[in-house]
């Protein structure tokens, strides 16, 4: 076996590969960019070498540099992970020329599958079913239109070189065809440098079902069953599961056979995925083959008890597949949720910043490569490339982690997923955790009524209107605030003198959540000899509600309160003036308005005169000394390829602009001085 490999990737997949290598006694070399100098994957490997600036094309895409590092460190093979150079046939060739093993398929197989059109022609010959469509060389607009008319609308235009959901257009009717073609070709040339397109019948309510295949250099090829990745947003996967709900043994065997035929048609070696699009009646068609390990490979590992990275290493070394088809079995059910730093409410816009607090459910009963997990009641696995304190930067994919659960059946796995999401806490940036939680417990997903339009169709229930913070949530924030105001040495809740702040026995505390203010009166009380507070809240309808609260236990950020006749437990993470309350799976960000301490300043800060993420100033819309109205746009910055407008929080005057056009600013940088109009 190899004694040392280089991992040409970052984040969770680099950590994932390193974990298996360590278990097998193989030394690992990490490569990293400026932005990743302190990244988790750097620490996860035995050695780490800097390869360039933060932008991927200056680091993780530098094939020459990476090969140089592999040779200099004495690595015998390179694992490309997914993304970056993983499906780059020139890189695979260059590795071979340098005498290094590329842990992936032969360059010729990558090339054969690299063009969706060429791959479809090959598959046609191999007898693999295809979506009715046109994938020819001739790109004449009239000919393409004639083909679309023949296939019948709606049709889907796809960039032949496309990937990641980019370069696709649905065309509903003939009259829209030409305009859609032009726009698809523009996006294709911009994103992939190739404007070739293909036309396919656009299937209604399809499912995305893919087959994991594995081949060795001795001519064996097996399939490790299917994954259902139908739940997508913008044609990108959100939830993945294995096996696919409703899959029959016959259909599974037919799809497996087709996938193996697809792999064999291109002389495949290593891990690959054949993606099919399936109708609700089960009929399926080849879409494309991904010639690498996929993001969602853990669900397959969990149901088959395999370690696919170990398989990759063995096959790359020339060993035969560890298991043949007859020995492969499905145990139970696994579901993966991709936890992203993004804002689902704002069109899934990536959110970047620092993970000020990160607390995850405990990983249980899961061990990589352990062949029998069938006896375990449930298992939770977290594949992550970040730790608390790390930043999600604008340079790479904003993934925080993959959360994977296993259960004896789908129902058990679903319950486990819901509980694990409830226990997943992130502070410092927006995440899709609450959205995933609604998704997994929603009717459509829990009843396995799956298709690629699930999220859009259930938009109303997946994006409910914001709900007012509950009294229990406010009580947790109040308890955390009062507790932090006390010195650690005296425990006021238990003290017989009572807990008094500067001898004040009653005060009003105001918290703000988005545009809603919550004011609660707290007054010191004892009840049944327990020190606590009477919390009084004024309701919108003019009524008031009062409840006695007392802190029962506090373990770090985890609090248990007496709450009237009940107990309430939750976690409160304080980040400056923000109290992040996690209660019953809900995360509420309560901004404490300490009116006395911050008269004026607080509000101005709420107006966001700071950079929300690192980026570049692209426009200054006002000059110093300008009087502006609340909401007026002041500065435009560009970050993550999107523009963000910084507007006036109040009527006031822009005193000074602190940056010029073209300046790079870091997250949280103050962009200008502003004074509020008197
Ligand atoms: P990419 O390489 O960009 O991921 P794919 O060809 O794999 O593109 O397609 C991505 C997704 O687009 C699929 O998972 C499916 O949701 C949708 N899709 C692709 N082809 C069709 C089709 N013919 N009809 C309906 N939806 C499709």
Keywords:
678 residues; alpha+beta; eight-stranded antiparallel sheet; eight-stranded antiparallel barrel; 18 helices; 38 strands; globular; binds adenosine-5'-diphosphate
What is the strand and helix layout of this fold?
Elements: E1 4-7, H1 11-23, E2 27-33, H2 40-44, E3 47-52, H3 63-73, E4 77-79, H4 89-97, E5 101-102, H5 107-114, H6 116-125, E6 133-134, H7 141-151, E7 155-159, E8 168-171, H8 177-192, E9 197-201, E10 207-215, E11 221-233, E12 236-242, H9 249-265, E13 270-278, E14 284-290, H10 297-304, H11 308-317, E15 333-340, E16 342-343, E17 349-350, E18 353-354, E19 357-359, E20 378-384, E21 391-392, E22 399-407, H12 410-422, E23 425-427, H13 433-441, H14 443-446, H15 454-457, H16 459-462, H17 471-485, E24 506-513, E25 516-527, E26 530-538, E27 544-555, E28 558-563, E29 566-575, E30 578-583, E31 586-593, H18 601-606, E32 615-620, E33 627-628, E34 633-639, E35 642-647, E36 652-657, E37 664-665, E38 672-676
Parallel strand pairs: 1-2, 1-4, 2-3, 4-5
Antiparallel strand pairs: 6-9, 7-8, 7-9, 10-11, 10-13, 11-12, 12-15, 13-14, 15-22, 16-17, 18-21, 19-23, 20-22, 24-25, 24-31, 25-26, 26-27, 27-28, 28-29, 29-30, 30-31, 32-34, 32-37, 33-36, 34-35, 36-38
Helix pairs in contact: 4-5, 12-13
Bound molecules: adenosine-5'-diphosphate.
